[in-house]
Amino acid sequence: MTAVTQFTHHGMIFVPPGYSLGADMFALDEVKGGSSWGASTFAGGDNSREVSEKERKYALHQGRYFAGVVKRLAATK
Description:
Blueprint (H helix, E strand, L loop, with lengths): L1 H8 L43 H23 L2
């Protein structure tokens, strides 16, 4: 997150998905990455942990969310 301020200083548009995924973000039934800042995953020190289905779902959601914002920005030109 420290890099975000530097990148935005140079013109990057940061599009965090916020809490737009809904209830899956708040589920406590398993260890998972992801926050209102964006998708992430927990990695095991020995590389034994795979990306969970919820983490994968959130990453896909973030990609679609970002694409929707880009599409709306492109339509304003």
